[in-house]
Design a protein that fits this description.
The chain is of the alpha/beta class. The chain has two domains: 202 residues, Aldolase class I (TIM Barrel), CATH 3.20.20; 78 residues, no CATH class. Helices cover 40% and strands 14% of the residues. The chain contains 14 helices and ten strands. The strands form two sheets. An eight-stranded parallel beta sheet has the order 1-8-7-6-5-4-3-2. A hairpin with a 7-residue loop joins strand 9 and strand 10. Helix 2 runs parallel beside helix 3 and helix 3 packs parallel to helix 4. It starts with a helix and ends in an 8-residue tail after the last helix. Bound molecules: flavin mononucleotide. The site of flavin mononucleotide has 30 residues, from strand 3, strand 8 and helix 9.
């Protein structure tokens, strides 16, 4: 395929695997890149910049295709050494970074000096415009349905993507709710140059997580996610479970007075319990509404090939067949 995103990142298909805490390890990133998409290693899952350098080297052993690294700027209990993570990325020869959370403005000079292309993930047109203004090469526009942090505007992709297309000059991918060939065709029709997927890639053979996580996603419907931390303006879409119900009960009791300390047990240190140990009820972990469209656990290559084949069929058979053939 050829879109502004395949050209920008020198990849075969405009399909990106978004950064995912405790999921975006070299194994998944390499599998996605080998299948023609863009795999992304999640920097902060590596506790130190040295460990990130090792993970980048491990990925390079598994693929000769381009891959990227995600740098997430979210409120954490202690500020990670971002400049050192960027140095590890640059020294590791990675030339694509997905930023997310706060604006990457402060780090743009270092990223650009290293010849890195930056795709900033954001949840509103105004943040995407800011990304364009500060020199980001592309945006990943994340709608309200997405797994993880959908922001506070609650605009779904059916509106957000065409608004982004009306406004942005830089290429952008549609993120949130993307699962199959229908999503890809719809995203392209709405003006995007490709798609970014999180939850769908979590339920693949190569995702380096406990099988209970993959089964939980296959078993979930589009009704099974919940929004947490709204009162803290740090909203996150997560899969509902026992830990999340306890958390929501605390949120209801505290109302606008909620402090992060009130829900610390349900949100801190949960990812290793879920992703490594398979205790999917332990607390809050990100998951998109798209879980309702996920019914299997294919290999990454099977998934990507299927998306592209479906998108082709949809375009040339279903859609083309709806128009007057004489045109
Ligand atoms: C388990 C999980 C962990 C995630 N962790 C991160 C993260 O650390 N940083 C980040 O920028 N996005 C993170 N995301 C968001 C994804 O990169 C992506 O933007 C999102 O999943 C897209 O929505 P979808 O799940 O509907 O595909 C995470 C998503 C999931 C499902």
């Amino acid at each position: 395929m050829k879109t502004r995103i395949t050209e920008l990142f020198a990849i075969r298909y405009p399909i990106i695997q978004g950064g995912m805490h405790f999921v975006g390890l070299a194994d998944l990133a390499a599998a996605v890149s080998n299948a023609g998409g863009l795999g992304i290693i999640t920097a902060l899952t590596q506790r130190t910049p040295e460990l990130l350098a090792k993970e980048i080297a491990r990925c390079r052993e598994m693929t000769d295709q381009p891959f990227g690294v995600n740098l997430t700027f979210l409120p954490t209990f202690s500020e990670p050494p971002y400049a050192e993570y960027i140095a590890a990325i640059a020294e590791g020869g990675v030339r694509i970074v997905e930023t997310a959370g706060r604006s990457p403005e402060q780090y743009m000079p270092a990223l650009k000096a290293a010849g890195i292309k930056v795709i900033h993930k954001c949840t509103s047109v105004r943040h995407a415009l800011k990304a364009e203004r500060i020199g980001c090469d592309a945006a990943s526009v994340d709608g309200f349905e997405c797994g993880g942090h959908p922001g506070e505007d609650d605009v779904p992709n059916m509106i957000l993507l065409p608004r982004a297309a009306e406004t942005l000059k830089i290429p952008f991918v549609a993120s949130g709710g993307m699962a199959d060939g229908r999503s890809l065709v719809a995203a392209l029709a709405l003006g995007a140059d490709g798609i970014n997927m999180g939850t769908r890639f979590l339920a693949t053979e190569e995702a380096p997580v406990h099988v209970n996580v993959k089964r939980a996603i296959v078993g979930a419907s589009e009704l099974d996610t919940r929004l947490i931390m709204r009162a803290l303006r740090n909203t996150e879409r997560v899969l509902n479970n026992g830990g999340v119900e306890r958390l929501l009960e605390i949120e209801r009791e505290k109302g606008a007075d909620l402090k992060i300390a009130d829900i610390y047990d349900q949100v801190a240190g949960i990812y290793p319990k879920v992703m490594v140990e398979g205790d999917v009820e332990a607390g809050a972990w990100s998951c998109g509404m798209v879980a309702g469209l996920i019914h299997d656990i294919p290999s990454v290559k099977t998934l990507i090939d299927r998306i592209v084949r479906e998108a082709e069929q949809l375009t040339f058979e279903r859609l083309a067949g709806m128009f007057d053939a004489r045109r």
